[in-house]
Amino acid sequence: xxxxxxxxxxxxxxxxxxxxxxxxxxxxxxxxxxxxxxxxxxxxxxxxxxxxxxxxxxxxxxxxxxxxxxxxxxxxxxxxxxxxxxxxxxxxxxxxxxxxxxxxxxxxxxxxxxxxxxxxxxxxxxxxxxxxxxxxxxxxxxxxxxxxxxxxxxxxxxxxxxxxxxxxxxxxxxxxxxxxxxxxxxxxxxxxxxxxxxxxxxxxxxx
Length: 207
Description:
The protein is an alpha+beta fold. Strand 4 (53-66) and strand 5 (69-80) form a beta hairpin. The protein has two domains: 2-81, no CATH class; 85-203. Strands 1, 2, 3, 4 and 5 form a five-stranded antiparallel sheet that branches. It is built from six helices and five strands. It has helices at residues 84-109, 113-121, 125-130, 140-157, 162-176, 182-203, and strands at 2-7, 26-27, 38-40, 53-66, 69-80.
């Protein structure tokens, strides 16, 4: 079956440091998620594994599908996904602005229209990042504002996974509400991850 695999800047698997050679089959003794085998993911789970480069991978042998991943007893890299680096940076920026919109809503609900107006008025990611210094993280709305500033900081300069992770945390924070409802947080986090994966799949024309 075909799936997707992320590698670091040196062509290594981030968790095992195994150095991959495109086109060469890699054999494992079995297929046990997180234990042994060649790991990949379907396009619906891309956002959970973001790294420096994205590849299409072919998996063979016994194959096990589980939460956010798929594992085969053998696999090979088929092709690097062109345009991924630019796309994931674009996704990071989109996520930061989505965080900003959540922060504005939370600040207005909390009655802090002054800071909400400042967040709403920013035109660049650097301006948004700079507003983090004015966010009171001890409050629910302030936490939403701080997450927006963090996402804006990481979007242009962080590792590929950083800003999207913060965006998912922002969605979870707001969905959980002032009472920090865990079920609400989990639902919001998962929804943002699903958005990110779907956006990348469409942007990169993946199957």
